[in-house]
Write a structure and sequence with these properties.
By secondary structure, this protein is an all-alpha fold. It has a domain at 34-113: 23S rRNA-intervening sequence (de novo design (two linked rop proteins), Up-down Bundle), CATH 1.20.1440.60. 80% of the residues lie in helices and 0% in strands. It has helices spanning 9-28, 34-57, 61-86, 92-113. The two termini are 14 Å apart.
Length: 115
C-alpha cells in the first residue's frame, strides 16, 4: 500500500510527463498556438493533481471519481499530443510517456472500482 500519493507509479509518471510538457510548451509556445499548449499543460497537470486528490480521499466513491477524471485528462493529453504531431511538432517522445501514463491511470482507476 502506498503511504503517499507520491508513491503511486501512475502519479510519478503523470508528474514527470506534466513537467516535460511544461518545458516543451515553453519552447514552442507562440500566440497562434497558445490555446493548444495551454490546454495541453492544463490536461497533463490535471492527471497528476486528480490522482493526488483521489488518493487523499481514501478508498471509496470520491477516490474513484478523481481517478476517473485523471483518466479522462490522460486521454485528453494523448489526443492533444497527437494533434501537435499532425501539425508538425514532433511529440513522439512524449506520446510514448503519455500512453504509458494513461495505461497506469486506467489500471489504478479499475482497481479502485473493485474495492
Amino acid at each position: 500500500m502506498a503511504h503517499s500519493y507520491r508513491d503511486l507509479r501512475a502519479w510519478q509518471s503523470a508528474d514527470n510527463l506534466a513537467a516535460e510538457i511544461f518545458v516543451l510548451a515553453g519552447q514552442h509556445w507562440t500566440p497562434p498556438n497558445a490555446c493548444v499548449w495551454d490546454q495541453l499543460r492544463r490536461a497533463s497537470l490535471s492527471v497528476a493533481l486528480n490522482l493526488a486528490e483521489g488518493y487523499a480521499q481514501g478508498p471509496g466513491a470520491r477516490c474513484r471519481l478523481h481517478f476517473r477524471i485523471a483518466y479522462g485528462s490522460a486521454i485528453e493529453t494523448a489526443a492533444l499530443l497527437d494533434f501537435l504531431t499532425r501539425v508538425g511538432i514532433d511529440t513522439t517522445h512524449l506520446t510514448v510517456s503519455a500512453d504509458a501514463t494513461k495505461a497506469m491511470v486506467y489500471r489504478l482507476w479499475q482497481r479502485s472500482r473493485s474495492k
